[in-house]
């Protein structure tokens, strides 16, 4: 049985395993946090060019988020020391910013999570660096479509399996692998909360979607096999077969009629190229 809890002002914010049904205050808070998150990713577009290092990109994110009076949630999270995750080519997720420079032909995911007034806006996008081969651009396109097809299923009465199935079906129709090792998640005052949002599954399975649920959808799609491996740094996840991987992430809230996407780009930079 899935456990749901209707949020009131004195409801606990600890991770209990119950799925929170948030009220209008949470939607207002997530709207603000989601907007700063999207503005951060918009700001980056002009800087995602050959020669820039991932450390420099992370610094731009830190400066932008803190100038807005917000805090990067990843900074100090479980010992992680940066304001973003930057994942290049065969890196699936949780790439650590550093001295590596972007080069023409790279596909790069940047994932940011600013905390605004206690609310976490969590989103990531792919950026195309210089001239990107068609094969890689196609992966990025299909991954974006996977996210949006999943979001289309995020409405009351549907189940998590409907979201997962829409993603899996589209990815596998292109003979891509859907990563199983990482999921979307409930988000709000907590960075990672219930429910788990899987990206593979069967229609009509999993928790029912109800108005007030707030979570991320963040499919990771590989050109090759779905299998990932963790590098010795304890964070960086790469494809086992070294094939290219792409990811997009939005934070959404279930409404009476569908869902609100909190992390839509004010600049219209949702789908590459931008
Ligand atoms: N932003 C990632 C997510 O979508 C989580 C990154 S946690 C970190 O859930 F510690 F690796 F930064
Ligand atoms: Co997330
Ligand atoms: Co994220």
Written account of the structure:
The chain is α+β, with helices and mostly antiparallel strands. It has a single domain (18-261), classed as Creatinase/methionine aminopeptidase superfamily (Creatine Amidinohydrolase), CATH 3.90.230. It is built from 4 helices and 19 strands. It has a 3-stranded antiparallel sheet, covered by helices on one side. Strands 4-6-9 form a 3-stranded antiparallel sheet. It has a 3-stranded antiparallel sheet with strand order 5-16-15, with no helix packed on it. α1 packs across α2 and α3 (134-152) packs antiparallel against α4. The radius of gyration is 17 Å and the shape is globular. The model has no long low-confidence stretch (mean pLDDT 97). The site of one cobalt (II) ion (CO) has 5 residues, from loops.
